[in-house]
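Duplicate of #3305? Posting structure anyway:
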């Protein structure tokens, strides 16, 4: 049991990989603790007496001035009232990222070290400077040492996975991605990952009177420009109610959290309690007591992605968990399929990791009868199992698999092409992976998959209805948009307009034009002419083109209505986006509809568009002060672009 837990911990912390669920790890850990307590026999390498991971060799290492201990934990919220012994405390998120210690000298960041094994960590100073929210300089000029959690939010995690180059496996969870972003050698990578830092402990700040209060330390850090972990002051009478409040909040919280931390507010009293070999006695962690349900595994859906990776998704009889109905859960990889000995008809125990993500906790039957497919569910091509650092994954070997052509579908639905709202790259990938769409024309028949799409994570009846409405709206379009949309090599928007204008927007004339005719168009030339002709001479592409035209109503540009639905309205855009490539693309979209995008929030601003609606940035604060709505990108699209 010790070796199993240590191996899983090494994979998770040092190699950013996952071979068992958090539920399974916690269950084994609790079982080991019970055995050690019963027998009095504890191995020297037991995870119950060790903390953190062993620092890897690529980064320089440094010993912490004070050991970084773990926290004792409980899943009984009522136990915490007794633990307080009548004293006040601070209740905060237990964030699920990578713990980092920052040291400032003379108001400047001088050093950043990871937690490592609790005694020795890795120096990541250059990477820490790329965290998006730590101050470059602070007012306090003494030696300031703070501990905090480096994290990547769920929204940024999804954005990064969508942007991965073809052939790259997706990251499994934000925690692993954050660890990899901080513990590597190129700060540019860290900067691209949107890593944020939340302080949770002040280690040293000589000369400052904190009035014997950890809350005063938090307020001091806020004044210096740091974001501190979200917290609330509690008493024995209020602690359970505040835990209930956090339990509701976590369902929509963008920052990964695996529980809460209760810290006695009185600094000197807490210090006087001392510590055990592994735990300080002035704080305790509250772990969410996972609500589980037993159900029957009915199917494994093998979903292909743009990287060729085929992901197993468990389909089981619907069960109620944490207030919602759950019927699907990712199984991640072949190694987990095999370790759980899955088989159709098995009874499985499911839960929501961190009360959010559905997972299989255990297989109570363990038949091990599930066959691994030898053909791709999308193209029928052969599959192959590949092993990466001890973990097995299933891949499609067909380079022409439609699932790998996600880029072409992304261009097809883009603003300058068919302009279909609601079809992000991630959504398209899901549709392709499940066989809902194979050709461009299939997008116009998705109404036949209503039940499946409505049941997808992130979808519902309203989302489906909006999607179908957007698809139907795109049927009436101009020929040059279609020519650009289908992805003819070397043909951009401007070139497509030149070609279509030359042939009077006649689709048949464009598709039958010779190289000579095409190259004679001013601004086209032989290379582009050859690309156009090659496209229409390709049997499969010509068939796809003909099927697509059967779904469309082509009109000449002068008959297309110019919608100015945002005329007279002013907007401000800030932060990262996921449905639009960048802020300029969204700005162009707003301006094309008659709206205006400005750089600052005023009383005339219709709304501020910011995916981090809870941010304390100056724009958000100004918007709240002036009563200007702060909308996420999806909310803006739904209200103004749908």
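Output from current build:
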């Amino acid at each position: 049991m010790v070796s199993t837990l240590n191996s899983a911990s090494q994979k998770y912390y040092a190699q950013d990989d996952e071979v068992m669920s958090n539920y399974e790890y916690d269950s084994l850990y609790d079982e080991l603790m019970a055995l050690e307590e019963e027998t009095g026999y504890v191995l020297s390498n037991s995870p119950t007496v060790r903390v953190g991971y062993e620092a890897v060799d690529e980064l320089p290492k440094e010993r912490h001035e004070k050991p970084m201990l773990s926290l004792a934990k409980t899943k009984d919220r009522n136990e915490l009232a007794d633990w307080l012994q009548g004293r006040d405390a601070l209740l905060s998120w237990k964030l699920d990222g990578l713990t980092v210690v920052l040291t400032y000298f003379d108001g400047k960041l001088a050093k950043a070290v990871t937690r490592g094994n609790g005694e020795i960590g890795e120096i990541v100073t250059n990477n820490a400077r790329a965290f998006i929210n730590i101050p470059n300089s602070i007012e306090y000029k003494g030696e300031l040492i703070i501990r905090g959690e480096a994290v990547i939010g769920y929204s940024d995690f999804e954005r990064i996975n969508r942007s991965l180059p073809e052939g790259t496996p997706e990251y499994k969870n934000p925690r692993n991605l954050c660890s990899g972003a901080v513990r590597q050698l190129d700060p540019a990578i860290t900067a691209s990952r949107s890593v944020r830092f939340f302080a949770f402990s002040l280690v040293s700040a000589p000369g400052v009177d904190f009035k014997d209060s950890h809350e005063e330390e938090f307020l001091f850090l806020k004044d210096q420009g740091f974001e501190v972990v979200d917290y609330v002051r509690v008493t024995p009478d209020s602690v359970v109610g505040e835990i209930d409040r956090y339990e509701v909040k976590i369902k929509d919280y963008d920052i990964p959290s695996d529980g809460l931390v209760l810290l006695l507010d009185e600094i000197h009293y807490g210090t006087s309690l001392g510590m055990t070999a592994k735990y300080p006695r002035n704080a305790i962690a509250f772990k969410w007591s996972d609500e589980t349900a037993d159900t029957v595994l009915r199917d494994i859906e093998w979903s292909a992605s743009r990287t060729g990776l085929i992901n197993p998704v468990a389909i089981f009889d619907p069960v109620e968990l944490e207030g919602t109905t759950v019927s699907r859960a990712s199984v991640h990889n072949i190694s987990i399929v095999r370790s759980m000995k899955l088989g159709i008809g098995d009874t499985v125990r499911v839960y929501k990791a961190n009360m959010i993500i559905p997972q299989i906790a255990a297989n109570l039957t363990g038949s091990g009868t599930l066959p691994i497919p030898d053909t791709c569910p999308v193209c029928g091509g052969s599959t192959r199992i590949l092993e990466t650092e001890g973990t097995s994954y299933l891949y499609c070997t067909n380079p022409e698999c439609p699932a790998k052509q996600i880029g072409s579908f992304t261009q097809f639905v883009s603003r300058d092409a068919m302009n279909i709202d609601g079809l992000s790259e991630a959504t398209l990938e899901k549709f392709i992976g499940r066989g809902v769409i194979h050709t461009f024309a299939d997008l116009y028949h998705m109404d036949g998959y209503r039940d499946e799409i409505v049941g997808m994570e992130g979808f519902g009846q309203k989302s489906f209805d909006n999607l179908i409405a957007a698809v139907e709206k795109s049927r009436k379009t101009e020929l040059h948009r279609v020519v650009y949309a289908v992805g003819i090599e070397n043909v951009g928007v401007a070139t497509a307009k030149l070609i279509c204008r030359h042939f009077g927007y006649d689709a048949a004339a464009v598709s039958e034009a010779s190289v000579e005719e095409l190259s004679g168009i001013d601004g086209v030339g032989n290379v582009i002419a050859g690309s156009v002709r090659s496209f229409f001479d390709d049997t499969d592409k010509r068939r796809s083109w003909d099927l697509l035209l059967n779904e469309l109503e082509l009109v000449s540009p002068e008959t297309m209505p110019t919608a100015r639905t945002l005329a007279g309205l002013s907007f401000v855009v800030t932060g990262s986006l996921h449905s639009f490539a960048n802020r300029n693309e969204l700005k162009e979209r707003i301006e094309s509809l008659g709206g205006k995008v400005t750089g600052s929030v005023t009383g005339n601003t219709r709304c501020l568009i910011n995916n981090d609606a809870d941010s304390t940035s100056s724009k958000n604060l100004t918007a709240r002060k002036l009563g200007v709505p702060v909308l996420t990108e999806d909310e803006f699209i739904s209200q103004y672009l749908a």
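Confirmed duplicate; merging threads. Residues 22-39 form the longest helix (18 residues). The CA atoms of residues 436 and 446 lie 7 Å apart.
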